[in-house]
Write the structure tokens for this entry.
Amino acid sequence: MTDWGQDQIHIKNLEVFGNHGVFPEENKLGQKFLINVTAYLPIREAGLRDDLTATINYGEIARFVTKYMKEHTFRLIEAVAEQMARALLLEFPAINKVTLEVLKPWAPIGLPVETVSVEITRSWHQAYVAIGSNLGDRGEYIKKGIEALKQNKGCLVELESKIITTKPYGGVEQPDFLNGMIKLRTVLSPVELLEFLHEVEQLAHRERKIHWGPRTLDLDIIFYDDLVLDLEFLQIPHSDMHNRDFVLKPMAELAPCYRHPLNGKTVRQMLEELLERQKETKKGQV
């Protein structure tokens, strides 16, 4: 992200009356809250042109926060902050990142305290998701998979690669695949995104019986920002992507200069190296 993408708009101590709290009387009678918002977005163009349409109207942000606080009820201010931060990002997509502090001056804790608060920072993320199918109506499964991503309010499909036909990977005898790549902007965490992708696969009746076996729909997270994540059920970047031309080819179409956060190589470099290895392997088999 460019430096001016870290420009900030601040709203401090916005006073709102809301019905949030663990105790029933807090939900019924309500109380005062103070909200601090820091919105990160590029405002250089607005400053140079003196043009409101090139930025975000901070009055609209303040009105949205006020309306959200009044129309929703949560037990925890942690929930207030989490849900409202996501709602702000979805309502104002030009905001790249938001820091939100929810202060509760009248917290019923029975001790002399000025206020208690929760502060969180949430942002949009860039993800690349590989999509494939080799069972049934492959094109239709891929079409529906992409459509499901578009229907998720937490995801914005920015780019789609061409769909290519590829040979199966992993030595299992099966039909050819259709493969492609999707560039996403998402507010979902990596685990939330994975869970959603699994839901979409299940809607396509995906069965995980054979490793590297045939499937109606396959959705894999390849990159997520520059994140390096190693969980038992999720590795980012995808641990075997450098060996898969059906991943690298469509990825190279969308972002050839995207750099792997671990090996430092661009997608184009990894694809060229893989194609050279495949070429040498074929020579050795002659």
Summary: The mean pLDDT is 91. The two ends are 48 Å apart (CA to CA). The longest strand covers residues 8-18. DSSP finds eight helices and eleven strands in the chain.
